[in-house]
Design goal:
Fumarate Reductase Cytochrome B subunit; binds protoporphyrin IX containing FE
Length: 223
């Protein structure tokens, strides 16, 4: 008698996706607090960390595990509408609406961190690309840094509200899966890509950022 092979349960969220998520959750309040306290020495490092984390997540969205890839959860407007009318989501991961909110969150985080590079507190601290840009562009980036943060706050509130709705109203184990990788009803359908590829990617992107910022013009003061 041949025995049926036990089906292997794969994690829904691989280690890099989870580490990325919870590090971003730590970084945002720290970035806000350090700016409020005018601790720009610290603020810039938190900002660089966000930049490298988001860049890594974006590349992982093309190269990483199945459910972390954009093709797995990004669908056209027709599929989003049909989901909103009560249809089923095709991905085991983000639902059609959630998928687009992930793209919006990542874009805003990127915009926030990049605009910071051109920012200055007009007293003691200037971002590393401040002296590279002309006055008009710097001013625009200052406004972007301000506005993007408010948009980010609004979207994060919406995100947490949506997660809590699915968690408690629809009784889906979203938070457990984002913490442990999978949970009952939230399992992956494919073996994840090894986590160290993401670690390597993160290291390379951090090096590229450091090298790139080193090339930026430094201030030249004439006394
Ligand atoms: C600073 C605040 C937060 C930001 C910027 C943020 C951002 C994100 C992003 C970008 C994703 C997509 C993950 C990926 O595919 O890489 C995500 C997913 C998720 N987040 Fe957050 N998040 C925040 C706070 C929270 C909090 C406080 C919770 C817990 C209540 C939470 C629970 C989740 C869950 C469960 C998912 C997976 C959703 C799903 O299964 O489709 N997030 N978040
Ligand atoms: C995602 C990452 C970041 C977040 C969430 C963030 C958040 C903030 C917030 C909330 C403020 C206060 C805004 C205000 O009250 O006008 C601020 C100001 C500032 N940030 Fe960031 N920031 C980030 C990245 C960066 C980076 C990478 C740099 C530069 C290396 C930077 C440089 C500055 C400067 C110079 C100010 C002062 C602006 C002023 O005084 O008008 N930020 N940031």
């Amino acid at each position: 008698m041949t025995r049926a092979k036990p089906s292997v349960a794969h994690p829904l969220w691989d280690i890099p996706t989870r580490v990325f998520h919870w590090l971003i959750v730590c970084c945002l309040p720290l970035a806000w607090w350090s700016a409020e306290e005018h601790r720009y020495d610290l603020h810039q490092w938190i900002g660089y960390s966000v930049l490298v984390l988001v860049a890594t997540r974006i590349v992982w969205g093309f190269t990483g595990s199945r459910h972390s890839r954009f093709v797995d959860f990004l669908v056209g407007p027709g599929a989003v509408l049909s989901y909103l009318r009560g249809g089923r989501a095709s991905s085991a991961g983000h639902n059609p609406l959630g998928g687009w909110s992930v793209v919006l969150l990542l874009s805003l985080l990127l915009l926030q961190a990049v605009s910071g590079l051109f920012n200055s507190d007009d007293v003691l601290f200037s971002g590393p690309l401040y002296y590279w840009a002309d006055t008009g562009f710097r001013d625009a980036m200052g406004v972007v840094h301000d506005v993007a943060f408010n948009a980010l706050l609004a979207l994060v509130c919406l995100h947490i509200f949506a997660v809590l709705y699915h968690q408690f109203r629809l009784k889906e184990n979203l938070v457990q899966a984002m913490l442990r990788g999978s949970a009952p009803g939230r399992e992956g359908r494919a073996r994840p890509v090894a986590w160290w590829w993401a670690a390597l990617l993160l290291g390379l992107l951090a090096l590229a950022l450091w090298w790139g910022l080193e090339q930026a013009p430094k201030p030249s003061f004439v006394f």
